[in-house]
UniProtKB/TrEMBL annotation:
It comes from Candidatus Eubacterium avistercoris. GO terms for cellular component: membrane. It is found in: Membrane. Pfam families: MBOAT. It comes from the Bacteria. InterPro entries: MBOAT_fam (IPR004299). This is MBOAT family protein. It is a multi-pass membrane protein.
């Protein structure tokens, strides 16, 4: 069972269907109206779930903030859903247009990566400083002086950054085609056998050549959970 499934079955649904949440829903509909009143209990249940997800990752404030940040994003999205639809309609935005789908992918990618500052930093304060430095101390040339390459030396940094860039392009392309209703794997499976073999071979070659394994990364990240 995954963490998401466990939280859904044993936290989200029990909280959402609880008696006190039902009373809160009636109160919300009476005070805020039918639409917002129906959404608020779901948002509150989501916040509880993501608070626990944060605590599950670690008993530290940075993990709690990490969880609550993601929970508030989803809650805000749910509360503003009707307003977003009205805004798109007034601006004549078509969900099927490529420019809008690219914007959605980039927006989600940015918001998710902001949450990773809290996961990677040692403290909440350090995470906030990292965010500030990400936009105020931008020095692209410094990337080439960081030994993040395959051999652990700066000589491999350019290659490692190239691999990361290529990976981002591939992931973005797959996301873009999925947003447009195309299943990349189905398209690949229906293509020429030679193309499929080339793609599968490249993937199999890349895993041992470019991957990081427990001997160098310190073991399975969730080994102690």
């Amino acid at each position: 069972i995954t963490l998401g499934t466990w939280m859904k079955d044993y936290v989200f649904y029990p909280v959402s269907l609880s008696r006190w949440m039902g009373k809160f829903g009636k109160f919300s509909r009476r005070v805020f109206g039918r639409s917002t009143g129906r959404t608020l209990p779901i948002c509150l249940a989501n916040l509880i779930v993501f608070f626990l997800v944060g605590v599950w990752h670690g008993a530290a404030w940075k993990y709690i903030v990490y969880g609550m940040y993601n929970g508030m994003l989803i809650a805000f999205s749910g509360l503003m859903n009707v307003n977003f639809r009205k805004w798109k309609k007034s601006c004549r935005i078509d969900d099927k247009k490529a420019y809008w789908q690219i914007f959605q992918i980039a927006r989600t990618f940015l918001l998710v990566n902001i949450s990773w500052f809290f996961d990677r930093a040692d403290t909440v304060g350090q995470a906030l400083r990292m965010m500030k430095n990400a936009v105020t101390c931008w020095k692209p040339s410094a990337l080439l002086s960081v030994p993040v390459g395959l051999g652990g030396t700066a000589a491999y940094t350019a290659l490692a950054l190239g691999v990361l860039l290529a990976g981002c392009v591939i992931l973005f392309s797959v996301s873009f085609f999925q947003e447009r209703g195309r299943d990349v794997f189905s398209v690949l499976a229906a293509g020429p056998a030679l193309v499929r073999l080339a793609v599968y071979g490249a993937i199999l070659f890349a895993i041992p050549m470019l991957g990081q394994f427990p001997a160098t990364t310190g073991g399975f990240i969730y080994a102690q959970f």
